Every structure is written in structure tokens, then in C-alpha cells.
């Protein structure tokens, strides 16, 4: 029984899910500290990002062999399998990068602090 539980805890889907949950709980903790937000409102604002992060994680699990083969062919390396930690951080990292780039560059803004551009003091 214990062996089956340990096998489940080492499965890529469980590791990916744990990474996504920890990532979004960290984001909620930051929002709670800054604005004293409640979970229901925060979840309503971020539910599409949570869903997209799970989808990105599933894509990483499904196509991990293809990504590894492409990496080995391009770098000419001989890595046999992706380490388990990559499943843990892949989806949150990709979502973090996407959110960062889309929030900064969606309006043609290349400056991450537009208040300084207008001569306003930074708060």
C-alpha cells in the first residue's frame, strides 16, 4: 500500500499539480498581504490563469519526450529523461513569463514603470 502511494507521489501529474497549487497559493498570500483580499474574489479574478496553467502543465507532461528529443538533437546531448523538478516548475514558470510580458508590453509599453516616464514620483 505504501509503495503505491509513493509511486503516485512521484507521478508527473501529481508533481505538476503540486507546483501549480503552491504557485497560486503564494500569489494569493502576496495579494492578501498587500490588499487584504479574500479568496473568493481573488479566485474569480485568477481562475482563467489557474486553468491555463494546468493546461500548460498537461502539455508539458504530454510532450515531454518530444521536447527532450528536440533538445538532444539541437544541443547534441544525450539526456535520457527530464528531471522531476522540471514538472514542478514548468507550468508556473511559463505562466509567470507570459503574464509578465503581456502585462508590460500589451499596450506598447516597454518601460515596466510608466509613472517614472511621466515625471510622477514612484510610490
Describe the structure.
The chain is 76% helix and 0% strand. It has 123 residues and is an all-alpha fold. It is globular and about 50 Å long. Helix 2 (12-35) packs antiparallel against helix 3 and helix 3 (39-62) crosses helix 5 (84-105). The protein has one domain. The mean pLDDT is 76.
Main traits of this protein?
123 residues, globular
Gross morphology is globular
Structural class: mainly alpha
Helix content: over 70%
Please write the string of helix (H) and strand (E) elements. Answer: HHHHHH
Spans of at least 5 consecutive residues whose pLDDT stays below 50 are none
Number of helices: 6
Mean pLDDT: 76
Structure summary, number of beta strands: 0
Largest sheet: none
